[in-house]
Specification:
The complex is a heterodimer of chains A (155) and B (405).
Chain A (H helix, E strand, L loop, with lengths): L4 H15 L6 H12 L4 H11 L3 H10 L11 E6 L2 H5 L2 H12 L11 E6 L11 E3 L2 E3 L4 H11 L1
Chain B lengths: L16 H6 L4 H21 L11 H9 L7 E6 L8 H8 L1 H15 L3 E6 L4 H16 L15 E5 L9 H9 L22 E5 H5 L1 H7 L1 H5 L9 E8 L5 E6 L4 H7 L8 E4 L5 E3 L10 H6 L8 E5 L5 H15 L5 H19 L6 H15 L3 H5 L2 H11 L6
Parallel strand pairs in B: 1-2, 1-4, 2-3, 5-9
Antiparallel strand pairs in B: 5-6, 7-8, 7-9
Helix pairs in contact in B: 2-3, 2-5, 2-9, 4-5, 13-14, 14-15, 15-17
The chains are: A alpha+beta (155), B alpha/beta (405).
Bound molecules: flavin mononucleotide, iron/sulfur cluster (SF4) and FE2/S2 (inorganic) cluster.
The site of iron/sulfur cluster has 14 residues of chain B, from α14 and α16.
Chain lengths: 155, 405
């Protein structure tokens, strides 16, 4: 259910007051917004402009710079599959192909917005390659069974 | 057999303050407080400690410029952004001994009269960031931050979360990120010790560098020099992955031959090559596996230890395919601010794709070498300057007939 813009602005004001209104807190605020709304909605950027005096355009400049933030809603669960050197030696490409088959196209939402997946750079889990991050939890080594399970639970 | 120093608590991690103190923790901080900031910096300088984040800059010299800076507002930043492909030693360091890292931070702040400490942890390391946050709070509650801040106040430690951008490991980009901007590097000079975070004098160190500091204080500068080599004192952490039996983090004194590290990690006898130093590192072939792992040893073989990442490849591996992965990484992670890097990393990736597919037109190698020269000479920061280092080393090796596939 899409939230009402007024509600979003209200909620973001709350997040800002518990984090801090100084420009230096922008990334921390955006992390919280992303976590709560699965993206940085326009209304959130507007609340940030009012409260933190950061223009909407600049907020989106920051959002598009960082891989963990997004302009468009991602799934309620996000699977990041490492495609970097070590993981590619250990079959990450096949796992990504499987994710595509079971969870839908990369980066997009699944049919009902429950789960989405993307490829990513080294996660610092190379000793347990092939590695992935499911929301904030390391999933390493990633197996096809784990992807299937995520698909069954959430797609 | 080297008994670990930095990783000495790996079998029994001290994740609460009581356990840390019971196992000898905080002796370094005590010593620093006894001898004062100036002597503390002198000890770090005398120990010969250099940065483990890749650039190898003397830590004591960095601290001395901040300590003696005129501006009373100055910062200490812990760089825990660890995103160099193949590198996971800082994660391990934080996980097995978070208080050792934090003790190092406290000593650094004391020695440089820091106004505030920032700990910048890559966004993907949530658990490690939470752990550091909780441990810092424990130190605060027990009164260990008291008197370390400005004018005798308690020191404030802020944990910040990266946004998933490799470039934010570069120090000036990291500052921009903390300030609330896109993580775009700035031209140096001015250097961070003069104008760093918020344009104020700033000392920034890597996690592993900082983890050395408590022992330098409690055991003395000569102790660090008793380990390693003359020009590379101390120990180094290596992240080993790829075609080895026991991937993981290994600690060794500097100067040990590369072959020994490979044996420890259970590498098979006939590897094709390794990639040493991460994406910005170089390929090293068996003829150089007797290379001593030290800054000077690597330099002699035109290699670099970089972050201490080691990825091993067997004879089945197509190294051009590995290079294509590196090319893809740099093209994605370039911040896009300067042309040689923004365009260069993309062109480089396209050519590497063709070479990996085996449908190169033959002119790619020459073009890659010329492009490499341009990127190295004309890029603003280390990313663009080193984005072609590994590729260059691969072209050299191919010329010498060292590639298996
Ligand atoms: C593209 C790029 C990425 C870097 N990433 C990191 C990193 O993830 N962690 C780190 O400690 N240093 C990184 N550095 C080096 C830092 O800029 C800086 O030299 C270092 O944090 C200083 O600490 P040290 O003297 O203790 O090594 C990077 C440098 C460049 C050019
Ligand atoms: S070299 Fe690359 S990463 Fe560095 S500032 Fe230029 S474009 Fe950005
Ligand atoms: S290469 Fe995949 S986690 Fe490092």
């Amino acid at each position: 259910m899409p939230e009402d813009d007024r509600e979003i602005r209200e909620r973001v004001r709350g997040l800002i007051s518990e984090t801090g209104r100084e420009r230096t807190q922008l990334l921390e605020v955006l992390h919280k917004v992303q976590k709560e709304f699965r993206h940085v909605p326009r209304a959130a950027a507007e609340a940030i402009e009012q409260e933190m005096l950061v223009p909407v355009a600049e907020t989106y400049g920051v959002v598009t710079f960082y891989d963990l933030l997004s302009e468009k809603p991602v799934g309620r669960k996000v699977l990041r599959i490492c495609e970097d050197v070590t993981c590619s030696l250990h079959g990450s490409e096949q796992l990504a192909a499987q994710a595509e088959q079971l969870l839908g196209p990369e980066g997009a939402q699944s049919r009902n917005g429950e789960v989405s997946w993307t490829r990513c750079a080294c996660l610092g889990l190379c000793d347990k390659a092939p590695a992935a991050l499911c929301d904030e939890e390391p999933l390493a080594p990633l197996t096809s069974a784990a992807i299937r399970k995520i698909g069954e639970d959430h797609a | 057999m080297h008994s670990p120093v930095l990783l000495r608590r790996q079998d029994a991690p001290a994740r609460d303050l009581e356990a840390y103190i019971a196992s000898g923790g905080l002796a370094g901080l005590k010593k620093a407080r006894e001898i004062g900031p100036e002597e503390t910096v002198r000890m770090v300088t005398d120990s010969g400690l250099v940065g483990r984040g890749g650039a190898g800059f003397p830590t004591g010299r960095k601290w001395e410029s901040v300590r003696t800076a005129k501006d009373p507002e100055r910062y200490f930043v812990l760089n825990a952004d660890e995103s160099e492909p193949g590198t996971f030693k800082d994660r391990q360091m934080i996980d097995v001994d978070p208080f050792l890292v934090l003790e190092g931070v406290l000593i650094a702040c004391f020695a440089t009269h820091a106004t505030r400490a920032y700990i910048y942890v890559r966004g993907e390391y949530r658990r490690e960031a939470d752990l550091l946050q909780r441990c810092a709070a424990e130190l605060g509650a027990a009164g260990y931050l008291d008197g370390l801040g400005p004018e005798g106040h308690a020191l404030a430690i802020e944990v910040r979360h990266g946004g998933g951008a490799y470039i934010c490991g570069e120090e000036t980009a990291l500052f921009r990120s903390i300030e609330g901007y896109r993580g775009e590097p700035m031209s140096k000079p001015p250097f961070p010790t003069v104008a760093g975070l918020f344009r104020k004098p700033t000392a920034i160190n890597n996690v592993e560098t900082i983890a050395n500091v408590p022992d330098i204080m409690s055991r003395g500068a000569a102790w660090l020099r008793s380990l390693g080599t003359e020009r590379s004192p101390g120990v180094k952490l290596y992240s080993v992955s790829g075609h080895v039996g026991r991937p993981g983090v290994y600690e060794l004194p500097f100067g040990v031959p590369l072959r020994e590290l490979l044996d420890l990690a259970g590498a098979q006898q006939d590897l094709q090559a390794i990639l040493l130093g991460g994406a910005a590192g170089t390929f090293v072939f068996p003829q150089d596996f007797d290379m001593p792992l030290s800054y000077e040893g690597a330099q002699q073989r035109h290699a670099t230890l970089g972050s201490g990442a080691l990825i091993a490849f067997d004879h089945e591996t197509n190294l051009w395919r590995v290079a294509e992965r590196l090319g893809s990484f740099f093209a994605h992670e370039s911040c896009g601010q300067c042309v040689p890097c923004r365009v260069g990393t993309r062109r480089q990736h396209e050519m590497l794709e063709a070479l990996a597919e085996g449908d190169g037109r033959g002119s790619e190698r020459d073009l890659l070498v010329r492009l490499s020269q341009v990127m190295t000479d004309a890029s603003i920061c280390g990313l663009g300057q080193t984005a072609s280092t590994a590729v260059r080393s691969l072209i050299d090796a191919e010329t010498k007939g060292l590639l298996a596939v």
